[in-house]
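Weekly structure sync - notes
Attendees: PM, LS, DV (DV joined late)
Agenda: review two folding runs queued last week.

Item 1: First target. Sequence and structure tokens pasted below for the record.
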Amino acid sequence: VQLQASGGGSVQSGGSLRLSCAASGVIFSINVMGWYRQAPGKQRELVASITSGTRTNYADSVKGRFTVSRDNAKSTVYLQMNSLKPEDTAVYYCATGRTAFDYWGRGTQVTVSS
């Protein structure tokens, strides 16, 4: 199983970024997909997840600003991040599994400056 995340970068507060995560080696359409993040000195936290039935879940801190979606034909999950804040600065990871997040990709850095 491979998960390749991309789309990170540096933006100013209020800006937007779109993360992508391409999966291979899994039956993507039946897996739950998730985005986690870890800021320096903090624990990794779940940002958003989307089930095979496209039910979504978000951390309270990103509700209304972030949107998770998936394209099963491309085996790719996306995280659209709008109205970014400095506290969103972290390494973002995508993860997948059938019922739990068993597989993880390498992270992509997101830096938001004030």
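Item 2: Second target, run right after the first with the same settings.
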Amino acid sequence: QVQLVESGGGLVQAGGSLRLSCAASGRTFSVYAMGWFRQAPGKEREFVAAIRWSGGSTYYADFVKGRFTISRDNAKNTVYLKMNSLKPEDTAVYCCAADESSAGFGSWGQGTQVTVSS
């Protein structure tokens, strides 16, 4: 299994930026894709962005297109989420997840809190 540790969350004013990091360890050779999800209080968890480990194809939820960028550093087994033009509605716990061998996102990190003040 893959272990994931997120970092980089915090408090930022609306319009500001943050960069989240997710470091993977363990069976990283089996990673097919990595993704970011978020869950706001009282809401369902939702998909934010994903990136294929080989080739680097990226996928985004409509509500972050043009504002968030997902990237990866294969040598460091780390995936990043650069978030620009943050809005109060982006406030949530952000978790990264690993899709091993194209089996779906089955490994999850603990999450990091992002709070955007108005």
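Discussion on item 2: The CA atoms of residues 26 and 117 lie 36 Å apart.
Action: LS to circulate a short write-up before next sync.
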